[in-house]
Amino acid sequence: MVSPIYIIAGGLGAAFLLGLLPAKWRTFAYGITLATLAFMSWVAGSWLYAFAVNGALPVEIFTAGTQPPFAINLRVGLAEAALALLMTLTGLHAALYMKDTLFKQGRQAMAILLIFIMALCGVVFTRDLFNLFVFMELVMISTGGLVLLSSDQRALGAGIKYLIVSQLISMLMLIGIVFAYHATGTLNIDGMAAAHINLFKGGSLAFFLIFMAVVAELKPFPANGWGLDIYESAHPAFSALFSVATGGATLYAVDKLLLIGGAQWLPMASAIGIVTFIAANLFALVQTNDRRLLGYSSVAQIGLIFTVMGQQDILGERYYFIAGGILLAHAVAKAGLFWLSGLVKQRQLTDWAALRSQPLLVFAFVTFIALLVGLPPFPGFYAKWDLAHLLAADGRLWLLGLILFGALLEAAYLFRWFGYIIKREGSEAGLALQPMKVDATLGAVVVAWLLAYLWGQLSGHGNLLHAIPLLFALLFLPLEWLPAKVKNIMAIAGLVGWFYLSYPSYDAFQLIFAAVMLPGGALILLASFQTQQRRVGFYPAAMLMFAGLSMLIVAKGSFDFFAAWETLTVGSYFLILRGKHSEPHALSYLVFSLGGAFLILAGFALAAQGVMDFQIAALAQVAKPFAPWVFALLAIGFMTKTASVGVHIWLPGAHAEAETDVSPMVSGILLKAGLFGLFVLLMTMGKQQLYGVELTHVMLWIGAISALVGNLLAIFQEDAKRLLAYSSVGQMGYALFGLALMNHLGWLMALMFVINHYIYKSMLFLSVGGVAKRTGTREMYRMGGLITLMPLSFIATLIGIIAVSGVPPLSGFGGRWIFYNAIMTADYRLPMVIIFLAGPIAFLYLFRLIHTVFLGQLKDEFRKIKEAPFWIILPQMIFVAALMVFALVPGVALRKVDVYLSQFFAGNGHLNWEGLTISSDFGYWNPVAIMVIIGVIFSTLFAWLLFVNRKAQPVKQFNIVFAAERPFRPETTHYAWNFFAPYRKALGFLTQPLVTRFWEAVTELLHSAAEVLRRIYTGNGQTYAIHLLAFVVVVYLLWMGGSDGI
Amino acid sequence: MKIPWALLTLFIVINYGLLMTALVQKIGARVGRRHGIPIWQNYIDLLKNYGLRTSITHGVMFYLGPVFRLSGGVGLLLFVPSIYGSEMFSNFSFAGDLILALYFVFFGTLGMALGAAESGHPYAAIGITRGLSQMTAAELPFALAVFAVALQYQTLSVTDIVAAQQGSILNWTLFTNPFAVAAAMLSFLGSMMRPPFDVVLAPQEVPIGPPTEYHSSFLALMQTNRVLFPVAKIVIYMNLFFGGAANWPVFFLKVFLIYMVSAFVGVVFPRFRVEQSIRWFLIWAVPLGIIAVVRV
Amino acid sequence: MIRRFAVFLLLLALGSIFVNLLMGYVPDSELNLTARYYAEHTAQDIGAANIVTAIVITYRGLDTLGEVTVLFLTATIIGMVLSQGQKHRALQRQLPPSGELLTTGSRLLVPLILLLGAYVFLNGHLTPGGGFQGGAIIASAALLLLLTDPLRRFSHRLISVVESVSGLVFVASGVLGILYAGGFLDSRILSTGTFGALFSAGVIPVIYSFVGLKVGAEFTSMLTNLAETEQS
Amino acid sequence: MDWIAMGTGFTLILMGLYGALTNRNILRIIVSFTVADTGVNLVLVAVGYMHGRTAPILDEAVSAAQAVTRIIDPVPQALVLTAIVIGLGVTALMLTYAYKLYEVKGILDISKCKDLKW
Amino acid sequence: MKEELLKRMVKGPDGVEFEVEPLRDYYCEAGPTVQTPAYTAIIEKLFNWARSESIWILGFGTGCGAIEMRPLMTPRFDAYRYGIQWRPTPRQANLFVISGYLSTKTLKRVIRSYEQMQSPKYVVGLGSCTINGGMYWDSYNTIKRLDDYLPVDLYIAGCMPRPEALLAGFEDLKKLIRAGKAEGANQYAENFEWYKANQKSVIHDWDMPDYNW
């Protein structure tokens, strides 16, 4: 082992050595630089290995052969070694990345870079306050030099702003240090910590100044304009260093300072951190320049870590796990993103669409934003989980809420950016690819996944990367080169196989969901056979969603549940984003879903009260003051997925714009995840009261109103898929209503809806999707009369709408029958009014769907249209068969689960399944008999009519009586546009887009606030200095009340 | 063994429907001081329509429309017991469940809508939009009333509900739950396609709406349903609200009287536009239904 | 105006922080722990008469190394920045001749200044002064020369070699400290010698000499670089 | 007596800062910062000062044995040396920047250097 | 020929162009066929009786005589008691009353409506104008002899004939029907060419298929 001091000595020595070299020996100088950085990395790495794996004790380095506090000492432990490795590695990559620039600028630039990295390591290692100052000054000055490596002329301005501010910072720090020294008689950090600086007269104030000075380096809001300018104008590789290495080192310096200050400074750290986190994320919302956005994001992330630091009093042993997780995630991601930005020629976010031509780079981008947002399986996810739990356990709910809010903002702009990449115009010409730069970026991706694995191992919750479904989904990434058909076979085999393997372990309730999600998903995937070529991106996304779903069903602990939840959310987001015009809708889906997920996280955290391996089943034991809140949080979280009214606005666009075979997946299957969550919630927590209000009653209302609003909106849609999407809102409203009834049959009905809705909505989406594929439009009024051309699609739609409408004898009626039996025992009746109103409205949109698409007048351009492709028709026909079977013998699916549900409602109201008859306390129902009777009547009459009209003359579309005239053209004869005009006159006021307007107002408010507030960054360096000064003064006044702190 | 009896019920009801409809039409004519159609006119019309020599077809769904329609009527009749306490005329009420009947009402509506739409005629589509729109509002008070009654008797079996109303006339739901009955009867007006709720069939504006292309035996089938369906529907009302019928004479009387309610209203009121009728139901009938549901 | 007022208010608030510091300041009557240790142990441990020098070079040697690096860094940056852009452009205007007095005076003074500088850094461990002061003095000679003849050129190569070698020596002596003494930057790799003698206090005089050279070279480099901007 | 030096130092800092924050010319800002730096250094030195003692140099006047009672605190003196050098480095760097800025953009007015904002 | 009936090239959603010929693609091209009585005599008699007792008139007033039809619905005349009703759509009507003069412009609509009625179907010419043009015998704009264009089963002469005359005429029509003599639809089918030629000779802008189903 080489002493860590050689990291510093080596760096410094090499820097001096570079000065000796003749200016021409650039390659040699570059070689030395790389070698030195590599050496530094190796030393740091070897120590990290020693600490982490061999459990070595932290090393103390005494300089001058004298014990501290009389001489400067350095300490290297696990955290220091990790940070040093991070910084040196980033430095090494930066050197590789900046090869061109370094060659151009010569050995001097290389020396500066070396000193920069060395100084950062010094900041991390040193245990002496003044020495810290020296190293920080070195960092500042070398930053001033490295900024100039940029080819952007504006960097000069940024640099001088930075220098002005750093002058102020160093003054504050010097004054603070000398007074702190005076107070404690030492400059050693540990010594000061032992001396309890706050007890000395003036000590607090001195510490305050030091603290403020170092915190200012963290770029707290609003004293951070200079930092943003640097991010925007500096060389991307340096921006990466500035964000990752400087940020990390300064954070560590703050951490050391907090050791001196003690616990009383922690709240301030949190306060500054969270304000910065939220403000920076808010401002990032309105950024269009990529690097500035990354700058804001960096500021935000550092703010978040600072917040976490402020919470170290309650984080205990998880502190380093959490803070480290976020820091490393931030570091790798930000470095990667900055490096990526160097590959993109133009600076607008939309210009990143050029990246699309390189799937590997897109994957890199996804990895990085997933890292930043903290999605599974990356470290931020584990950190977020632990943090939330510990905060909630201590009652710091406001902070938790703010953190989650900020994270949501961050997710919003990052994924919006991703949307630009995938959806906007862009060509390969927008890229400036260089092997070295690409390699550096991909290196970051590798590190990201390694970190994900590492954090999974450390988490104590089980490593997500050990989950077979997830691995299976990830397996598709390296297999992207295969043709889609092969991958499709694999995917189907995977789904069915996993179901087969897991089948014995499911209970009756899980089995229903599993059957819908796994074999059900495989069935829909049959439709994917019709796609050609490789279909890059589809299978990883789809399988990620299915992986999430399959993990969700069997999750026992809240962590597994939540991880599965986020996995499926992300997977489905990627799926939805694939649609042609789905960019805004996918984004709103993601934002709502993540918002919901965060509520779920908060709910679990609140419920767990610090217990990390919280079992879902234990929700039942949550104590009184928390229980209703937990219930509310979880319920709202799940309801965002079922698209209940209020949070439904993402659904129509997301489902409608998705690809033909994706719509049924996200509608037929994905929505059930929300229902599953609600089921689990109600099974464990049951009824809860908040301020005397029965929460299940609130859910009843929400369910009923969702049903009404969904159905009402559906009838006014012109877009067939949007119509179906709104219909899903309504149907999920029914299911929610059934659940909230809190009785046996209500739940059974909800389960029946799970199956029914899956079958008929998948079928309808496929059918409509097939039609849309053939006609090239989704506007129903442009179709019409397709029945003869697409008979099979028509049959699927016909059966589908009969089933949806709940008319006997198809399976929809079973749902209605159970529903009526269920409401008989409900103790709260008013919402039924709305549900009853919603019911018949379904007829309106269903009729509209089949009429305007398949019946009515055929248009000229569709005269030669062919039936939908075989692979789209096949699953539809299977669904038709399944629907018939389920209509005839619902017991096959429901019988067992009916018994299963009895355990929740003792002896109350389960069904009797005798032979083919199903009876409840109130009535009975024999699907087979009904089917037979209706079938006999129907076929008799049909045969009779056919016989009577055996000689009927078939006529064509214009052979209609038209008030003694003839129709003009099919377009004018097809009654389809604004189909339910009278209805709009009567009840149209109910369809006012209040919810949409509300969310738009929220978005608008956030954006305008950001737009206005960010104007504080005037670009004037002096103003920035004033900001800093004002920041110090305001914090002083707020925190210390103007006193000297004694 | 039920099948012949069921067919008998069907036969009785169709004949009764043909005659009663004609009678009601005659009564309506008398209100207008006309003599009115002969009482057998419905039979003759039916016969004539079957006897037409030509017919045209717009496609498969064109056939299915009337078939759905009449199946709906026949099925509805057969799923509800006609005569209380009679083994023979209880039809297929082993499935005589209230919910089944409620939803089966829509079977014909939906099928008819499909058939009419297949004709490709815009007027048919316009008529259907009106009909369906109006139906959504008109069915609501009825659904509420049914829910109230089911709650009141704690059963969803029509037979049980009738049984509970036996004994005295005061046991009828009409007296035990007047709000529900009031709501249901208002809804009844809306579902009978008589004024003021008959804009669906506006005879000249959209030449009689949905069936504008129907003729010959197609029309005959629909005519059959037109006499059968109201009776079937009234049977439900009778069973739920007016004590059911223990024998055929009572059956005939009660059905006639209930039918007359809509006839009475129909001859004195002008026509509502669709949105007007929707509002009317929501403002006048639904509150009654809500009161009924809440009071039980 | 508003800006001025805002700045004034802010400084008032900052001033109040300072006033608080000032009010809370009580001068020590005794040396504190650290200072006492230095007072008591420097002489025998390090052998330097000038305690400040002992602290600067040995006890807080890492600071000083950093400090030297700061200078090196600044000089490097200046060199890098100013070397880019227009090089060796012909002088565009005629400079007025520097006076006779200045020319002659500097001829006399420059050797003396250099000598003084060397003295100051060589005796840094004994008397007030040291490498930085000495280096600054040496650089002032360069400044004088530049004033005399603004077009005078110093060898960049020489300067950078001096800089680098000095830096390397500093680092190397630090590393030697690990190998042969108590730790990094321990000055006792040479014997501490006789207290008060020129060659005492271990490697301090050597380091300080190199620091002096380095500082002198760096200052000169900065001056030269800045002076060269006059060309344009 | 002690606080006069310290007070002067603080006053210098405030004066320097006022100059730095109100002058637009970068060169003036740099000069102002130099003033403020001097103030900081003065404060630093003042903190170590102890009334009636002498410089921490051992010679005939102050023997090693008496040092504890005779010398002032040497640490701030060491610190101030570093601080001065660093201040000088930063000043030089700023000057370079100012020069470069003038060369590239032809301005020395900080308020005109606003091409990066928001 | 109207523009919307002309052949045109249309581009499908898959980009392939093809031809659309409205008259061929939108309309059934089959001609009318003679419908012989399909059943045994007695049943045919029964049907004829039913047809005669259930006469549904197409509610299409083609000329000024239409005003004489309205009173038939009133309490004073009350045609309903004779099994006579009005239907708004030709599909359901059996009887077409050509009420008075028939302008050539209306003739086109009349032909279309007549052809859309289901057989057996009857035509009654109301008033002198349908017989010989009446007072408009020399008009440039009316047809003179209805019989040249449609197979008329019965004329009710007069200008205008009173509602009573109409009732009497309907009774006569009933007799014709019962006697099996009201086979205008078959007559039309048999002499289709002749009728068409006559029709086309007066309707110059013939823009519909030859037979309107």
Verbal overview:
- The complex is a heteropentamer of chains A (1046), B (296), C (232), D (118) and E (213).
- Chain C has one domain (35-84, 100-231).
- Helices cover 69% and strands 0% of the residues of chain C.
- Chain C has helices spanning 2-24, 33-45, 51-59, 61-83, 100-122, 131-148, 156-180, 204-228.
- The radius of gyration of chain C is 22 Å and the shape is globular.
- Chain D is an all-alpha fold and 118 residues long.
- Helix content of chain D is 67%, strand content 0%.
- In chain D, α1 (2-22) runs antiparallel to α2 (26-48) and α2 runs antiparallel to α4.
- Chain D is elongated.
- The mean pLDDT of chain D is 86.
- Chain E has a domain at 54-202: Rossmann fold.
- Helix content of chain E is 32%, strand content 14%.
- Chain E contains 7 helices and 7 strands, in the order ββααβββαβαβααα.
- Chain E has helices spanning 22-25, 41-53, 104-116, 129-132, 163-178, 184-190, 192-202, and strands at residues 8-11, 17-20, 55-58, 84-87, 95-99, 122-126, 154-156.
- The mean pLDDT of chain E is 91.
- Classes of the chains: A mainly alpha (1046), B mainly alpha (296), C mainly alpha (232), D mainly alpha (118), E alpha/beta (213).
Strand-helix topology:
The complex is a heteropentamer of chains A (1046), B (296), C (232), D (118) and E (213).
Chain A: H1 5-20, H2 26-52, E1 59-62, E2 73-76, H3 78-97, H4 99-105, H5 107-125, H6 129-147, H7 155-184, H8 189-195, H9 203-217, H10 225-233, H11 236-261, H12 266-284, H13 290-310, H14 312-315, H15 319-343, H16 359-373, H17 379-393, H18 397-423, H19 435-459, H20 468-475, H21 484-502, H22 508-525, H23 538-554, H24 558-577, H25 583-608, H26 627-642, H27 650-657, H28 662-685, E3 689-690, E4 693-694, H29 695-715, H30 720-740, H31 744-775, H32 791-805, H33 811-824, H34 830-854, H35 870-888, H36 891-902, E5 912-914, E6 917-919, E7 924-925, H37 927-948, E8 953-954, H38 970-973, H39 981-987, H40 994-1013, H41 1021-1040
Antiparallel strand pairs in A: 1-2, 3-4, 5-6, 6-7
Helix pairs in contact in A: 1-2, 1-5, 2-3, 2-5, 3-5, 3-11, 3-15, 5-6, 5-11, 6-7, 6-11, 7-9, 7-10, 7-41, 8-11, 9-11, 10-11, 10-13, 11-13, 11-15, 12-13, 12-18, 12-40, 13-15, 15-16, 15-17, 15-19, 16-18, 16-19, 17-25, 18-25, 20-23, 21-22, 22-23, 22-28, 22-31, 23-24, 23-28, 24-25, 24-28, ...
Chain B: H1 2-31, H2 41-51, E1 56-57, H3 60-79, H4 98-118, H5 122-153, H6 158-164, H7 173-176, H8 178-191, H9 216-241, H10 248-268, H11 274-295
Helix pairs in contact in B: 1-9, 1-10, 2-9, 3-4, 3-9, 4-5, 5-8, 5-11, 6-9, 8-11, 9-10
Chain D: H1 2-22, H2 26-48, H3 67-70, H4 75-105
How is the main sheet of chain A built?
3 strands, antiparallel
Rounded to the nearest angstrom, the distance between the terminal CA atoms of chain B is: 39 Å
Largest interface, C-beta closer than 8 angstroms, per-chain residues? A-B, 77 and 79 residues
Q: What structural category do the secondary elements of chain B indicate? A: mainly alpha
Shape of chain B: globular
Assembly state here? Answer: heteropentamer
The helix count of chain A comes to 41
Give helix % range of chain B: over 70%
Rg for CA atoms of chain A? 32 Å
